[in-house]
Write a structure and sequence with these properties.
Blueprint: E1 14-15, E2 17-22, E3 28-33, E4 36-39, E5 42-48, H1 52-60, E6 62-67, H2 73-79, E7 82-83, H3 90-93, E8 98-99, H4 103-107, E9 111-112, E10 121-122, E11 127-138, E12 145-157, E13 179-181, E14 184-186, H5 197-200
Parallel strand pairs: 7-8
Antiparallel strand pairs: 1-13, 2-3, 2-6, 4-5, 5-12, 6-11, 9-10, 11-12, 13-14
Length: 207
């Protein structure tokens, strides 16, 4: 039997992303988010236009999408309810957000230089995606929410995540991303079965 409900939030589970951007004064900003999905070399980011990250993206046209694994939950949690926007937007202040200039230091994370963009990468994240801004799309009007389209220009992967047979493939059995599911942190369980789809795209089954 199914019950009709009116949930306060529809957030069935997506990867957590640490987005690094550059502020107006040249300092780095780092913000966690989890409304992101990828298609080919593009990614769509769902965020509030009131955030410092969105303002930086619109101005600088670039960012790094750093994907944390589950061991970085404490670091991501330290960034929760912080914003690089000063003064803090009223809607965020009402929810307990505070201004923080040094996001990397507060989270205990390390900056690495990028190759194609100014924004730094997060050393502790096993996946870094350097990206360029493409377009901003209004979303759920009237609302501050927007969908931002970015193009992935450079992919950095920790060696231990790669398949032994081909260095251009990530081994999904080794990748345990941090997942935000209804505003709570989760990881992945073990692979359940091999997929018929993997060979279609030239991927090896890990089962």
């Amino acid at each position: 039997m199914h019950t009709v409900i009116e949930p306060k939030i529809l957030y069935f589970g997506t990867s957590v992303v640490l987005i690094s951007t550059i502020n107006e004064d040249g300092t780095p900003n780092l913000a966690p988010m989890s409304s992101a999905w990828w298609l080919n070399q593009s990614c769509m980011l769902g965020m509030s236009s009131k955030s410092q990250t969105v303002q930086n993206l619109i101005r600088e046209h670039e960012c790094v999408l750093n994907l944390p694994s589950i061991d970085l939950i404490p670091a991501v949690d330290r960034l929760t309810l912080l914003t690089g926007r000063n003064p803090v937007p009223e809607s965020k202040a009402l929810r307990g957000y505070k201004y923080e200039v040094d996001k990397f230091g507060t989270a205990g994370l390390t900056q690495l230089p990028s190759q194609l963009v100014q924004a730094p990468r997060v050393k502790e994240c096993p996946v870094h995606l350097e990206a360029k801004f493409v377009k901003i799309h209004p979303f759920e009007q009237p609302s501050s929410l927007v969908a931002i389209e970015v193009r992935i220009e450079k992919v950095h992967i920790e060696d231990y995540l790669l398949m032994n047979a081909n260095s251009n493939y990530v081994d999904p059995s080794k990748w345990n991303p941090m997942i935000m599911n209804f505003c709570e942190y989760f990881g992945l369980g073990e692979q359940l079965s091999a997929s018929k789809l993997a060979p279609v795209f030239g991927l090896q089954s890990v089962k």
